[in-house]
Amino acid sequence: MTATKISRRGLFQGRQTAGFRRILPPGATDVGLLACSGCGNCADACPTHIISIVGDLPSLDFSTGECTFCGECANVCPVQVFLGESPYRFSHVALITDNCLAQNRVECQACRDACPAQAIRFRPQIRGPFLPILEDEVCNGCGACISVCPVAAIEIRELSQEAVHA
What we know:
Elements: E1 2-5, H1 8-13, E2 17-23, H2 30-33, H3 41-45, E3 51-54, E4 57-60, H4 72-76, E5 92-96, H5 110-114, E6 120-125, E7 128-134, H6 144-148, E8 154-158, H7 161-164
Antiparallel strand pairs: 1-2, 3-4, 5-8, 6-7
């Protein structure tokens, strides 16, 4: 789930900070965020150190690593922030942008090598490097490809609700 950066006070007053997209830990819900105390236990327990507390609420930052869906964040939470089942798939997938080295005629396959779900494959092209193809149905949104991209060419794209539950 992606939300906008907002403090608890801002939540109740309807204020948001533009330009920030909050990515919730697996199993955390918008309703659960209302109960979040901002204690930081989830951030401390995360083995890949991708959870931080932003505006008193947990947020994932895939630029530093990936989510392994271990559930440690939910296990240490003293309140009911994690109301959903701990899924093995986010409601978003990776999106390879035009900044991709391979799309700019430079050989690179770092994202494919890092993807534990094997959702990224490379299609051969004549007189150029192989081009990345991301399979939305296979991508679990873990973010493993984001931190290894040397030019930050991978972003997050929300899935429709139908695709998440398929």
